[in-house]
Design goal:
The complex is a heterodimer of chains A (about 90) and B (about 400).
Chain A lengths: L11 H8 L9 E2 L21 E2 L19 E3 L15
Antiparallel strand pairs in A: 1-2
Chain B lengths: L1 E4 L6 H7 L18 E6 H28 L12 H9 L6 E7 L7 E6 L6 H15 L9 H15 L4 E5 L4 H16 L4 E5 L4 E3 L4 E3 L8 E5 L2 H4 L14 E3 L12 H8 L9 E2 L6 E6 L9 E4 L2 E5 L9 E5 L5 E2 L2 E10 L2 E10 L9 E3 L1 E4 L20
Parallel strand pairs in B: 2-20, 5-6, 5-9, 9-10
Antiparallel strand pairs in B: 1-2, 3-4, 3-17, 7-8, 11-15, 12-13, 12-15, 13-14, 16-17, 17-18, 18-19
The chains are: A little secondary structure (about 90), B alpha+beta (about 400).
Chain lengths: ~90, ~400
């Protein structure tokens, strides 16, 4: 009985590696319904961006609508503890 | 178990970069990914690591039950107001994706738990992807203790069934290793059929009117995988909103109890003399021992004591917190290289192994990652872990 994965393919990761990590810190959704991150049906990817799109529904099973979003959103309430530290692992 | 020297692939940097390992070399020019050697295990040794990992996971789940039942919130530095948040996630058996046990093991005697990275483990990309492709490039017929990729996809398929929301992956802005680790996890979720996105954690928004966490486009977040420690989240400005929103968090809140080294004295108290545990206490231990910050990371602020005298210490930012003491166990050494095994749990399976090497006894964020393979001419112990494991209590 083998202990290793049969196949290890990457999609988004390959695209990010090809584009460059800093270019990919964005808020775009990757939707598997579009056939993988850049085409190829889940195989290795060389930087295509066709997997991007806006999701049809927001918030998953919560059924939230976009109405009444207002401008009461604040950002930056998480992330402060990482200042002065390295990464989170070891 | 042995360490053998190898000639690295001539294009190894380019090869690993194409797979996402942009951080293969340390700032001082030394390889972090080091394929000038590999470790070779017998099947019986892999069986032993797998069974020890499953046993430790079982002990940890029993410990969580104990902590919650006895309300040991102070021991685990859970701030007031989050008790029910954590209890609820446990009672509802919220799914866990991944954790990594750091084991001391040299092929002789049982693996010993050094610590459990239950909340934000890294070195996952290296273990799951980079060493698998290294094996395929160098010895494709050989085996490896590494079904991480398959198990991760299975875990996300379960998230799709049980949570059913798109997943947002977050990590510290500007930290490449964390970003690529989060991106790898995002990739496996994508391959499981989930809609995903990445955000730096400071881009998460709180919409007060809707009482929801949102992204930068005001979309409410149904599920968030955070490569960011619970102990930080609970104490930051948005932490106060965590208990009252429907957002599902991964790792789940109950993992906050396992990512604290207060776990080590508790495990020893609950399961004294267990073969996979080392004596641990809140109080100093006689003889040779190691002192660790309860909420430390990356090998920081660790001190080795021998008869009350500090003989080795690391610097760091965690000097002000609580410390635990653990009996010193000699770090296994091969040709002068000291190693710690990272044994991975994914969705209830013990399914992968990563090895970190260092010249000293303490693993840090610059300790080299060295790949491994299994000598398939050896025989298994015949003691096989259960084939299917589902649910966090089903161990």
């Amino acid at each position: 009985m083998t202990r290793k994965s049969k196949i290890v393919t990457i999609t988004i990761l390959g695209a990010v590696a090809a584009i460059g990590a800093t270019a990919c810190c964005c808020t775009t959704w990757w939707d598997p319904a579009d056939g993988g991150a850049g085409g190829g049906g889940g195989g290795r990817v060389g930087g295509g961006r066709s997997g991007y799109r806006t999701p049809f529904f927001f918030g998953g099973g919560g059924g939230a609508s976009r109405s009444g979003t207002g401008t009461s959103t604040s950002h930056g309430g998480f992330g402060s503890s990482s200042h002065g530290h390295g990464g989170v692992g070891a | 178990m042995q360490r053998i020297s190898l000639t690295p692939r001539p294009d190894w940097q380019k090869r690993v970069e194409s797979l996402g390992l942009a951080f293969h070399t340390t700032d001082d020019g030394q390889p972090y990914w080091d394929e000038s050697a590999c470790y070779v295990f017998t099947l019986a040794e892999i069986d032993q690591i797998e069974l020890a990992t499953l046993a430790l996971n079982d002990l940890c789940l029993q410990a969580v039950e104990h902590i919650i039942e006895k309300e040991l919130w102070d021991d685990f530095q859970i701030p007031p107001g989050f008790e029910d948040f954590i209890r609820k996630s446990w009672d509802e058996e919220e799914i866990t994706i991944v954790g990594r046990f750091d084991l001391l093991y040299d092929g002789a005697g049982p693996p010993k738990l050094a610590e459990y990275n239950a909340d934000t483990p890294t070195a996952l990309l290296e273990a799951a992807v980079i060493q698998w492709h290294w094996l395929q490039d160098t010895t494709p017929d050989a085996d490896q203790f590494n079904s991480l990729h398959e198990r991760l996809i299975e875990a996300w398929q379960r998230v799709k069934r049980e949570v059913g929301a798109p997943v947002t992956f977050v990590s510290t802005e500007g930290h490449l290793e964390d970003f690529m680790t989060a991106t790898y996890l995002q990739d496996t979720a994508h391959q499981a059929g989930l809609m995903t996105q990445y955000l730096p954690i400071n881009a998460l928004g709180w919409n007060a009117a809707r009482q929801r966490f949102v992204d930068t486009k005001e979309r409410p977040l149904g599920c968030v995988f955070k490569l960011y420690p619970w102990e930080w989240m609970l104490r930051e400005r948005f932490g106060q909103y965590l208990p009252s929103t429907p957002t599902r968090w991964l790792e789940p809140p109950w993992k906050a109890l396992l990512s604290n080294k207060a776990l080590l004295p508790l495990l020893w108290q609950l399961f004294p003399e267990h073969p996979n545990l080392l004596p641990a206490s809140w109080d100093p231990l006689p003889g040779k021992s190691i002192r660790k910050p309860a909420l430390g990371r990356e090998g920081a602020n660790i001190t080795v004591f021998e008869n009350g005298e500090a003989t080795h210490r690391t610097a760091g930012d965690y000097a002000d917190g609580e410390f635990i003491h653990q009996a010193f166990h000699e770090t296994p050494s091969f040709d002068g290289h000291k190693i710690v095994l990272g044994s991975w749990m994914v969705n209830g399976y013990a399914c992968g192994l990563g090895i970190r090497e260092d010249a000293g006894p303490i693993t840090s964020n610059t300790s080299r990652f060295v790949p491994h393979r299994i000598d398939t001419s050896t025989v298994s112990t015949g003691i096989i872990a259960p084939e299917t494991r589902s649910g966090i209590r089903d161990v």
